[in-house]
Design brief:
By secondary structure, this protein is an alpha+beta fold. The chain contains twelve helices and 15 strands.
Length: about 400
């Protein structure tokens, strides 16, 4: 009898221990689960006020409304596509920690966050701002991408460093040449030589300052001060005329071909500057007694102005950088010919403000072709209808300069 009671008590005690152990395991598991995982059973999802949801959807930057248990109540398209939100939760631990800190303090929080979403992937630069929406722990999260600002700041620092170097070089040269002139006061030939060098350096300095001003104006909000019909033939003739002396000095012939009647809307002076820069570059990088071709033709809804040479060409590794400010493929040759390193950058920006683009084909030893593509101006016919293609396919004119 006593033995039966003993076994009964032992079984009851074992059952109790088992129940307690099971309860403990369940508590540990529940405590380790993210609140979002229990949404279906224990968390009541509060609806987002419609005005707030609409405002979030209208924002271009990532915006999310986060509930009291860190669950996503609403996220706009930018939050979903940028990786700020992953399903029903905030993707980054540092961002969710900011949200929780803001909830605890019941005050807005802001933090710059740098992270990589994938190993060896690009570094993301976010600024996360969060604050309470109501008294129930609901928070709003706004994320802005700092990368464009950082790139602009880096470009500004690079520009300041480059322009400082480019300005110091001719200024220093003028100072040295002035001392040389003073020292050669009794040598008329020496004075003339050093004075000529001073004129070359001051001309380089003047060109650099002018191009910096032009580039700044092109990067402003309204760079096109005059927009009027411009004849392509006039642009080509004026640009080539500017290069007459350089072409004569280097014994380079320039062939001009232009389809009759081509016009674009824009600033004639700016367009001439762009083509002139391309022509001068073609001459500089061509061998003596070479030939440079300048042409314009209609191609669909675009006017293509091409400047071709059979000079030294450009290495493939340099093609992606030649339109950068102050980038030179051949620094010595550029400076010897008065180059500032801003010419192709100006061409790129002039094309952009006219709604066009510029590209380049080049191979080492085979030459280069720069093509400026601009929207064609289509003049209305007397009947109010646009002219057909036949009005822009007139004969070709050719000059040898």
């Amino acid at each position: 009898m006593l033995r039966a009671v003993y076994w009964w008590l032992a079984g009851f005690l074992g059952l109790g221990i088992g129940v307690l152990a099971t309860w403990a395991v369940i508590r540990v598991v529940e405590a380790s689960r993210h609140p979002v995982d229990t949404l279906a059973t224990s968390v009541q999802v509060l609806p987002v006020e419609p005005t707030l949801a609409t405002a979030a959807d209208l924002m271009e930057m990532p915006v999310a409304v986060i509930g009291a248990h860190d669950e996503i109540l609403h996220a706009n398209e930018a939050a979903l596509t940028s990786g700020v939100v992953d399903g029903s939760r905030v993707a980054d631990n540092e961002v969710i920690a900011l949200v929780r800190a803001s909830r605890e303090k019941d005050a807005g929080q802001r933090r710059d966050i740098d992270l990589r979403r994938i190993p060896h992937g690009p570094l993301l630069h976010w600024t996360a701002s969060t604050g309470p929406v109501d008294g129930h722990g609901t928070m709003i999260l706004v994320v802005t991408d700092r990368a464009p600002l950082l790139r602009a700041d880096q470009a500004r620092r690079d520009f300041v460093a480059n322009i400082s170097h480019e300005l110091k070089t001719p200024i220093g040269a003028v100072s040295i040449l002035a001392e040389a002139v003073e020292g050669a006061a009794d040598d008329p030939d020496g004075v003339r030589h050093f004075a000529g060098r001073m004129q070359a350096e001051t001309a380089r300095l003047s060109a650099l300052v002018t191009q910096v001003i032009d580039l700044s104006r092109l990067q402003s909000d309204e760079p096109l001060l005059r927009a009027e019909p411009v004849a392509a033939r006039e642009v080509l003739d004026d640009a080539v005329h500017r290069a007459d002396e350089l072409a004569h000095r280097r014994e380079v012939a320039i062939v001009v071909r232009c389809q009759k009647g081509l016009e674009v809307m824009g600033d004639a002076a700016l367009l001439t500057d762009a083509v002139a820069n391309l022509v001068q570059n073609a001459i500089v990088y061509s061998a003596p007694r070479a030939r440079v071709s300048v042409s314009a033709r209609s191609q669909g809804d675009r006017v293509e102005i091409a400047v071709s040479d059979n000079g030294i060409g450009i290495a493939e590794k340099d093609l992606d950088r030649i339109f950068e400010r102050f980038y030179r493929v051949d620094y010595a040759r550029s400076r010897d010919n008065g180059g500032t390193g801003l010419g192709l950058s100006l061409v790129k920006h002039i094309a952009r403000v006219h709604g066009g683009a510029v590209d380049v084909w080049s191979k080492l030893g085979q030459g280069s072709t720069f093509t400026l593509r601009l929207p064609v101006r289509t003049a209305p016919s007397p009947t109010g209808e646009a002219p057909t293609d036949s009005t822009t396919t007139d004969s070709t004119a050719e000059d040898l300069i």
